[in-house]
């Protein structure tokens, strides 16, 4: 959903996010140049994004949650970039968006970013984000296109970040492929857990910069980086403490390493009449009679 000054916001029955479009870079009120992933904490299974934007007081909790999080120039909750010369190189705000699926089981969309410098060469990105009902973790896929001279390919390393928080508990498990944090929320709103899950075979190491805790992972020859990231809020349930969050993330990571036939994808085909898109730019069209809004436009 495109809202406010070019925001793109999405949600399921557990969590909500937003990220920022190009118009926000030059907004007179509060300009922001960042491809971060923001958090909206909610404690209701209903879809709230439209109502919160329309009320224009979504920073105040009136019973369903609020925007307590300030992502700013950090990577927020799972934003990524490319790591080179011991630093993280990141894109600016997205310039285009495309909704691929908007149904009762899954929301899926793509964001296009202008080429950005990565220690010299420029790299363009299309980021596909998928969020399934009943989950606290989004699936992110960054489709990169490096602009290099002929016969001079470059090897990419993605840096996936979680914004640092004072007094947080941070744990990294390279074997399982996850980095997680349990932290106090802003505005005394409670506790929250943040996490990243990447392919353990591709992870190079844990790292950090001034604003973020990072996981560095090799980008395959396909130039597609794939990972999960998300959060929980202790007041929303059912993940109400650090132990429950760690258990959820660890079991999710184990499931990714031992895949089974994806019944969820089969259900999408049955309910929408369209296959799940596998390449950027492909369009998955939902069947109107079978739809129930999970990402409202």
Q: What this model shows, in words?
A:
Helix content is 11%, strand content 41%. The chain is mainly β and 297 residues long. The protein has an eight-stranded antiparallel sheet with strand order 8-9-10-11-18-15-14-13, with helices on one face. Strands 1-2-3-4-5 form a five-stranded antiparallel sheet, with helices on one face. It starts with a strand and ends in a 25-residue tail after the last helix.
Which properties best describe this structure?
297 residues, mainly beta, eight-stranded antiparallel beta sheet, five-stranded antiparallel beta sheet, 3 helices, 18 strands, 41% strand
Order of helix and strand elements from N to C terminus: EEEEHEEEEEEEEEEEEEEHH
Mean of the pLDDT scores?
86
Task: Give the fraction of residues assigned to helices.
Answer: 10-25%
Structural category is: mainly beta
Strand content: 35-45%
Question: Major sheet: order of its strands?
Answer: 8-9-10-11-18-15-14-13
- The radius of gyration computed from the alpha-carbon positions, rounded to a whole number of angstroms, is 18 Å
Span between termini: 5 Å
Short précis:
With 297 residues, the chain is mostly beta strands.
Q: Strands, helices and their partners?
A:
Layout: E1 2-3, E2 7-11, E3 16-20, E4 38-42, H1 49-55, E5 65-66, E6 77-84, E7 87-89, E8 96-102, E9 106-117, E10 122-132, E11 137-147, E12 157-163, E13 169-173, E14 178-184, E15 191-198, E16 203-208, E17 212-218, E18 224-233, H2 242-257, H3 263-272
């Amino acid at each position: 959903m495109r809202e406010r000054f070019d925001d793109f916001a999405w949600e399921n029955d557990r969590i909500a996010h937003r990220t920022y479009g190009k118009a926000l870079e030059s907004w007179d009120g509060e300009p922001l140049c960042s491809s971060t992933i923001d958090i909206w904490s909610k404690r209701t299974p209903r879809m709230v994004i439209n109502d919160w934007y329309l009320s224009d007081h979504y920073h105040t909790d009136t019973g369903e949650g609020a925007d307590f999080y300030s992502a700013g120039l950090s990577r927020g909750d799972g934003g990524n970039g490319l790591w080179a010369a011991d630093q993280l190189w990141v894109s600016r705000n997205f310039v285009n968006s495309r909704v691929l699926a908007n149904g009762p089981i899954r929301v899926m969309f793509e964001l296009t970013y202008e080429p950005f410098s990565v220690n010299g060469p420029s790299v363009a990105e299309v980021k596909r984000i998928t969020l399934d009902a009943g989950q606290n973790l989004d699936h992110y896929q960054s489709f990169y296109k490096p602009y290099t001279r002929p016969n001079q390919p470059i090897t990419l390393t993605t840096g996936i970040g979680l914004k640092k928080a004072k007094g947080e508990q941070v744990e990294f498990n390279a074997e399982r492929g996850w980095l997680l944090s349990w932290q106090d929320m802003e505005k005394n709103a409670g506790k929250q857990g943040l996490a990243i899950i990447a392919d353990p075979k591709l992870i190079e190491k844990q790292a950090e910069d001034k604003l973020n805790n990072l996981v560095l992972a090799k980008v395959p020859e396909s130039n597609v980086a794939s990972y999960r990231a998300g959060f929980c809020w202790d007041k929303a349930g059912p993940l109400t403490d650090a132990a429950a969050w760690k258990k959820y993330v660890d079991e999710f990571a184990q499931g990714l390493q031992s895949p089974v036939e994806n019944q969820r994808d089969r259900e999408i085909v049955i309910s929408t009449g369209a296959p799940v898109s596998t390449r950027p730019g492909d369009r998955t069209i939902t069947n109107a009679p079978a739809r129930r809004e999970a990402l409202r436009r």
